[in-house]
Specification:
By secondary structure, this protein is α+β, with helices and mostly antiparallel strands. It has a single domain, classed as Hypothetical Protein Pfu-838710-001, CATH 2.40.320. Helices cover 26% and strands 46% of the residues. An 8-stranded antiparallel β-barrel has the order 1-5-4-3-2-6-7-8, surrounded by 4 helices. Strand 4 and strand 5 form a beta hairpin. It is globular.
Length: 188
């Protein structure tokens, strides 16, 4: 594993208050994006059981194929993440390959994301403020780091979350939350 994604998600964010706190800490707004993540199921492996994920993220004309490995132990979500840029003109071919290999589309998670960059406790962190269709507002604090820096990154994320007064943390994915909401009849 070359790089690991270290992140923690918080439910029910107050975007205006949080953005003011980020500005006061010197964070830089990276921009606002609309994203649609189409998640796929493996033909022979249950990703819910193996804790893996495969998705195609659409951001304007950009497409990114992402594999997320199983979560590693820790207070925050830690996992290998491999991303490959795919041209939007190649998306149909990529989906056809996945279909031929037996992968099936599970759901699309659509969100608007405001992305902030912040140097905190010696770490470069992203603070993502997400408005997820059918689920509501969330905040993700994340960083991609080498395996030797995971503990320091995890500590920085937890410290920043505490200082920002973020509430209930969740290691669940948006896909998992969306599927649960649909199962409970709340995501229709």
């Amino acid at each position: 594993m070359d790089k690991l994604e270290v992140e923690l998600k918080f439910v029910g964010a107050e975007p205006a208050r949080l953005e003011q706190q980020l500005v006061e800490r010197g964070a830089q707004l990276g921009g606002t994006l609309s994203q649609a993540d189409e998640d796929f199921a493996h033909p022979n492996r249950n990703f819910a059981e193996t804790d893996e994920a495969l998705r195609i993220r659409s951001e304007g004309e950009r497409r990114v194929l992402t594999y997320k490995g199983p979560k590693l132990p820790g207070a925050v979500k830690i996992r290998e993440e491999i991303e490959v840029d795919v041209g939007s003109d190649q998306e149909a071919g990529l989906k056809r390959i996945l279909d031929q290999l037996g992968f099936r589309s599970v759901a699309v998670v659509a969100k608007t994301r405001r992305s902030w960059q912040l140097s905190f406790a010696g770490r470069d962190l992203k603070v993502e403020i997400d408005d997820v269709q059918q689920l509501g507002s969330f905040v993700e604090i994340e960083s991609v780091t080498d395996p030797q820096s995971v503990a320091a990154t995890e500590a920085a994320i937890l410290q920043l979350a505490n200082e920002l007064g973020l509430g209930r943390a969740s290691k669940a994915s948006y896909l998992g939350l969306l599927l649960k909401a649909k199962q409970e009849g709340r995501g229709e």
